[in-house]
Design a protein that fits this description.
heterodimer, A: 406 residues, alpha/beta, nine-stranded mixed sheet, six-stranded mixed sheet, 14 helices, B: 237 residues, two-stranded antiparallel sheet, Lipid_II_synth_GatD (chain B), CobQ_GATase1 (chain B), cell shape (chain B)
């Protein structure tokens, strides 16, 4: 590593540590920011000599990255950006902080995938899914798929692990030479009614899909979620026991196993490690307070709200919606979520944009109570489980109320 | 009012549904049902024939490619033109609003629109993103318009269309006017579920469709709170 990169690494680590000590945050952005100011090529230098996996997609990145890091950990030390700082500053911080590790598993914001591929020369790129997300500042879905497709076409040496159930992902990966397909199911379909290749309608039947106007169709997956487990490429079924709720996390675990397998880790070695992951940067965390068992679920866009309703118990549920910069300023997406699964349970609403939520719930005939604070929400429900579903900054607000639970 | 159910068609949800556009269909159906007006909703995909006998047609926002494709298919189909000539009401949003006009720009090319509204659209130098507020044409008898806009288009009105509103915050058509209306056709840049913040527009469509002069009032406590909050948020600094 060049001297400048060594200096930048050292300063980056110090800045991150100072930030943490000052209570300003977890240091996962500032350290990388300073390091990259000193040496713009720092991420490239830090990635060199490590076997890197990148994980990208609209939903499930943070969880899949954590599970993949746990699985690859069978082989040795893994550097990872486990707090969801998923842009190059976060990657730089994560690699600087961990020192020389043989492996790195990095979550990558979908917009930055091309850049991070160029800088880290990964062995494996995992593509989870693509759906609408924060449209007032993010790209439209088909444009994102096109960016991915171009990024991968430039790097035929990369092994792609991709979701065969998402037509947008399949199209994005279709130019690659080495692809492992996984099937984790796809509940959200509204962004893939039209083929990204030909513009013709996509037909679906019992999990299969195909374009009615061109050859694009669902590839045969090598890894498949079945019941509470995963079938591997040899046809062996493995029970997946997780502390994380929901079928979507079995899918995330299947993806993690598929990525780890590219590094030579067998499912039987990885599974015990996956079962020890209990929460991820506050997601799925359970906190006991005032006799209530509070569980935190993050849902940022229509696809992830569908999954959150699937995970949530039939218990009192607090919904919190903000529309600050990281959330997107536009709340229109609330109408792409069907809230009717909440009709049979007590629902509380809060957050900066609680009124948008109130009108939305009325349209779905869901009864609710508006609360101003988290404490008021706690007092409003009987002892027992309280499910909390919140979008990004609303989630962070509630996490702060609970002393930044991890 | 006829005893038949009100028929509400959502045009091409496979092409033009990017920002919660489904909301307008859900809100119309809810507000009809809450008053005991039977209503049926139909989602008509772009590979299906457009029925011409419905009462209200909804057309939403979308990306350039799907917008151009939708215009071509609606022109070839002709069903929406027939419905309009028979007096159907239309609510058009963003890309859907543009494609009702004579022409619009998509992917850098000028495309022929349906010519149902006397408007034409081109590209602005900047993208309009943010809160939108306007005073609605007094002839429509509606309270202030509130919405969120996210578009690159600029729209020019001809002599046979009137602005839906005079802009008091945001851009709309050109920074001065927002949306357009003529007969029973409404168009707005207030994107996605525009009726959530503007239930009076939903009721106007329902009145047009049923022929009723007035509708039973509904409890709009939450919608009123939302409107007040968003109108205040869009106040000029």
């Amino acid at each position: 590593m060049p001297l400048i990169a060594k200096v930048a690494t050292s300063v980056s680590k110090t800045a991150a540590a100072l930030s943490r000590a000052a209570g300003r945050g977890d240091g996962s952005v500032i350290g990388g920011w300073i390091g990259l100011k000193i040496d713009p090529d720092l991420l490239t230098h830090l990635a060199a000599g490590r076997a890197v996996a990148l994980v990208s997609g609209t939903n499930g990145k943070t969880t899949t990255t954590r599970l993949t890091a746990a699985a690859v950990g069978v082989l040795g030390r893994v550097a990872t950006n486990s707090f969801g700082a998923n842009m190059p500053t976060g990657h730089t911080s994560a690699l600087a902080k961990e020192g020389h590790t043989p492996f790195a598993v990095l979550e990558v914001d979908e917009h930055y995938l091309a850049q991070v591929i160029d800088q880290t020369r990964p062995k494996v790129v995992a593509l989870l899914n693509l759906s609408r997300d924060q449209l007032d500042r993010a790209k439209e879905v088909a444009m994102m798929a096109e960016l991915w497709k171009k990024a991968l076409a430039d790097h035929p040496e990369i092994r792609v692990v991709a979701n065969s159930d998402d037509p947008m992902v399949v199209w994005a990966a279709s130019g690659s030479q080495q692809i492992t397909w996984f099937s984790a199911g796809q509940r959200w379909l509204d962004d893939s009614f039209v083929c990204p290749q030909s513009g013709h309608p996509i037909e679906r039947q019992q999990g299969d899909w195909w374009c009615t106007g061109c050859p694009l169709r669902r590839p045969r997956p090598q890894w498949v979620v079945e019941d509470e487990g995963v079938i591997d490429p040899r046809g062996d079924w493995h029970l997946v026991k997780l502390q994380l709720p929901g079928r979507v996390n079995i899918g995330n675990a299947a993806t993690a196993l598929a990525v780890a397998a590219e590094f030579g880790v067998r499912p039987i070695e990885a599974l015990p490690r996956l079962s020890r992951v209990a929460s991820i940067a506050g997601r799925y965390a359970q906190v006991d307070r005032d006799g209530r068992n509070i569980r935190l679920l993050l849902a940022k866009n229509p696809a992830s709200w569908l999954e959150a309703f699937d995970m949530a118990d039939q218990a009192p549920t607090l919904l919190s919606i903000n529309a600050r910069d990281p959330d997107g300023l536009d709340t229109s997406w609330l109408y792409d979520v069907d809230f009717s699964p909440l009709r049979d349970r007590p629902v509380l609403i809060t957050g900066d944009r609680a009124y948008d939520l109130a009108v939305r719930l009325q349209v779905n005939q869901v009864q609710f109570k508006h609360v101003q604070t988290f404490d008021e929400a706690l007092r409003s429900v009987p002892p027992g489980r309280l499910e909390v579903i919140a979008n990004y900054t609303a989630f962070q607000d509630i996490r702060a109320e609970l002393d930044r639970v991890n | 009012m006829s005893t038949e159910a009100l028929r509400i068609v959502w045009i091409y949800p496979d092409l033009l549904s990017t920002y919660g556009d489904r909301g307008n269909m859900l809100i119309l159906a809810r507000r009809a049902a809450d008053r005991g007006i039977p209503a049926e909703t139909y989602e008509v995909r772009s590979d299906q024939r457009m029925p011409n006998g419905a009462d209200i047609y909804l057309i939403g926002g979308g990306e350039d490619g799907p917008q151009a494709l939708a215009a071509q298919r609606l022109l070839a189909d002709g069903g929406l033109h027939q419905a309009v000539s028979q007096g159907a009401a239309v609510l058009s949003i963003c890309a859907g609003y543009q494609l009702l006009g004579h022409s619009f720009f998509a992917k850098g090319a000028k495309c022929a629109g349906l010519g149902l509204l006397d408007i034409s659209s081109d590209r602005g130098e900047t993208r309009a993103v943010g809160e939108l507020r306007g005073e609605v044409d007094p002839r429509l008898g509606l309270p202030a318009l509130t919405g969120f806009e996210n578009h690159g288009g600029r729209t020019h009105l001809g002599a046979h269309a009137a602005p839906l509103a005079r802009v008091t915050a945001g851009i709309g058509n050109d920074g001065q006017t927002e949306g357009a209306w003529a007969g029973k056709i409404l168009g707005t840049y207030s994107h996605g579920p525009a009726l959530a913040r503007n239930p009076a527009i939903a009721d106007l469509l329902l009145r047009w469709a049923t022929g009723a002069d007035r509708l039973a009032p509904l409890d709009d406590t939450w919608a009123d709170r939302l409107r007040s909050e968003r109108l205040a948020a869009a106040s000029p600094a």
